[in-house]
Write a sequence for this structure.
């Protein structure tokens, strides 16, 4: 069992190397800092009672998993941001306003009846797709990708394990993709 001083010393020692490792992986210093900080919190929170000799291996595993989680979130978020850009034709799916419902409803084309009908139809398709999901899948999907919560936060809110959250999200993504494609929405 390690002491708080040993854990603190280990984290201070590994901080710069971990940052460089994360920065090389994600190519964004701010994101790398967040990843390292999250990894350090996870080590301190879950494994502080482990012997100090186990900290390096545990920390590396946590750091690599946190980097992988970041890439998974980005992949899914980019996929759904692009997929849902069909709500507003011509809208850049990666702009800051792409997720804003207000923006969807207040474009310069919003006075055009044809545009309004098309946007309304697309919103209905999306709403129906979300409503068809089982409750737990819908809840996990909305918390993770709309509310941008991480797996741990979502698991706490849903009262289940992080693995269950990942399973629900994966199944939701598959079901939504299948439904949208069946309605002619190509991604």
């Amino acid at each position: 069992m390690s002491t708080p001083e040993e854990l603190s010393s280990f984290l201070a020692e590994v901080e710069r190397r971990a940052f460089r490792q994360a920065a090389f992986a994600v190519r964004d210093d701010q994101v790398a800092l967040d990843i390292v900080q999250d990894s350090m919190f996870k080590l301190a929170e879950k494994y502080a009672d482990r012997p100090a000799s186990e900290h390096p291996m545990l920390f590396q595993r946590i750091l690599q998993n946190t980097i992988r989680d970041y890439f998974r979130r980005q992949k899914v978020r980019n996929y759904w941001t692009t997929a849902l850009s069909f709500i507003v034709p011509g809208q850049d799916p990666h702009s800051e306003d792409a997720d804003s419902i207000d923006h969807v409803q207040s474009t310069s084309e919003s006075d055009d009846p044809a545009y309004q009908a098309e946007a309304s139809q697309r919103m209905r398709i999306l709403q129906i797709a979300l409503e068809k999901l089982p409750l737990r899948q819908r809840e996990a999907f909305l918390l993770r990708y709309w509310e941008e919560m991480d797996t741990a936060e979502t698991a706490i809110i849903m009262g289940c394990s992080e693995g269950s959250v990942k399973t629900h999200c994966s199944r939701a993504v598959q079901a939504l993709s299948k439904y949208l494609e069946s309605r002619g929405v190509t991604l």
